[in-house]
């Protein structure tokens, strides 16, 4: 499932073929994904110029010159497939449509962008750009972890007195937007905090120390995504999934990476999701 860094990577991959470009034709091949598409979506996209791409939490936002914004949510398995565009001296041929290409944007410049989503947990919606903060998927989101509004004061205040495990508290999208299971595991390992520890019982000093760790973990993952993007350009035009070297996530039973620690990484299930941690390094 794509998390914030993966979404940032997809956004970066879409920018050269979308930003400043006109959507010559939009194809909408079914009425819905996770939720119904907005009314007349194809007509509202066709002929519009994309004036900018942004990310909010795990959503990609494409501002159109019609004063509307297209929201793209990759969901569990959504992929953006780009073809027909020039990369250096090489042109990926425009791909024929394949199964699960639910929405297709043919750009005036020749690129084809297909939103392919086998499991259909993804979504697209259109909203007035100046009313985006009121959109139901956006209005309750906390601050961006890499933005100025997310700081030590905010995090300490939001976690004070909370009786929930720190793992769940950091996954609460009203506390901080866009943090998901994988990166919360990595953050707690780096902070030396056990995922089951109650948020309200952790000292303000240790909570405050989470802020730069969250920023570092995400920034490093975005940088890794950027390098995967450079590789992708030589390959098949599929955006969004790349392998990181995680320190705990997905490493159950493997050695802890901390020098001098001889423990194995453990996995527990919290709120239906796997938490990976070192029982020695995280208290
Ligand atoms: Zn350890």
Automatic annotation (TrEMBL):
GO terms for molecular function: 8-oxo-7,8-dihydroguanine DNA N-glycosylase activity; class I DNA-(apurinic or apyrimidinic site) endonuclease activity; damaged DNA binding; zinc ion binding. GO terms for biological process: base-excision repair. The lineage of its organism: Bacteria, Pseudomonadati, Pseudomonadota, Alphaproteobacteria, Rhodobacterales. Monomer. DNA binds at residues 100, 119, 162. Belongs to the FPG family. Residues 2-122 form the Formamidopyrimidine-DNA glycosylase catalytic domain. Involved in base excision repair of DNA damaged by oxidation or by mutagenic agents. Acts as DNA glycosylase that recognizes and removes damaged bases. Has a preference for oxidized purines, such as 7,8-dihydro-8-oxoguanine (8-oxoG). Has AP (apurinic/apyrimidinic) lyase activity and introduces nicks in the DNA strand. Cleaves the DNA backbone by beta-delta elimination to generate a single-strand break at the site of the removed base with both 3'- and 5'-phosphates. Gene3D superfamilies: 1.10.8.50, MutM-like, N-terminal. Residues 247-283 form the FPG-type domain. The gene is mutM. It comes from Yoonia rhodophyticola. Its EC number is 3.2.2.23, 4.2.99.18. Its cofactor is Zn(2+). It catalyses: Hydrolysis of DNA containing ring-opened 7-methylguanine residues, releasing 2,6-diamino-4-hydroxy-5-(N-methyl)formamidopyrimidine; 2'-deoxyribonucleotide-(2'-deoxyribose 5'-phosphate)-2'-deoxyribonucleotide-DNA = a 3'-end 2'-deoxyribonucleotide-(2,3-dehydro-2,3-deoxyribose 5'-phosphate)-DNA + a 5'-end 5'-phospho-2'-deoxyribonucleoside-DNA + H(+). Binds 1 zinc ion per subunit. The active site is at 2 (schiff-base intermediate with dna), 3 (proton donor), 58 (proton donor), 273 (proton donor). Keywords: DNA damage, DNA repair, DNA-binding, Glycosidase, Hydrolase, Lyase, Metal-binding, Multifunctional enzyme, Zinc, Zinc-finger. This is Formamidopyrimidine-DNA glycosylase. NCBIfam families: fpg (TIGR00577), PRK01103.1 (NF002211).
């Amino acid at each position: 499932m794509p998390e914030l860094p993966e979404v940032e990577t997809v956004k970066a991959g879409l920018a050269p073929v979308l930003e400043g470009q006109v959507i010559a034709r939009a194809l909408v091949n079914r009425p819905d994904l996770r939720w119904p598409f907005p009314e007349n979506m194809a007509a509202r996209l066709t002929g519009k110029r994309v004036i900018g791409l942004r990310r909010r939490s795990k959503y990609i936002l494409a501002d159109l010159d019609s004063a509307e914004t297209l929201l793209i949510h990759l969901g569990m398995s959504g992929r953006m497939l780009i073809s027909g565009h020039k990369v250096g001296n090489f042109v990926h041929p425009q791909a024929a449509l394949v199964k699960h290409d639910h929405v297709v944007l043919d750009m005036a410049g020749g690129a084809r962008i297909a939103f392919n989503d086998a499991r259909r947990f993804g979504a697209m919606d259109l909203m007035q750009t100046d009313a985006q903060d009121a959109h139901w998927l956006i209005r309750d989101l906390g601050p961006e972890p890499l933005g100025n509004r997310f700081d030590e004061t905010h995090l300490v205040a939001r976690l004070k007195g909370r009786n929930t495990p720190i793992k769940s508290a950091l996954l609460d999208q009203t506390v901080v937007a866009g943090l998901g299971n994988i990166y919360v595991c990595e953050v707690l390992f780096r902070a030396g905090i056990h995922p089951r520890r109650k948020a309200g019982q952790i000292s303000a000093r240790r909570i405050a120390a989470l802020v730069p760790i969250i920023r570092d973990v995400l920034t490093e993952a975005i940088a890794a995504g950027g390098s995967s993007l450079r590789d992708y350009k030589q390959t098949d035009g599929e955006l969004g999934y790349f392998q990181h070297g995680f320190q705990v996530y997905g490493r159950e039973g493997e050695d802890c990476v901390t020098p001098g620690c001889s423990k194995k990484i453990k996995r527990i299930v919290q709120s239906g999701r796997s938490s990976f941690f070192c029982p020695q390094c995280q208290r």
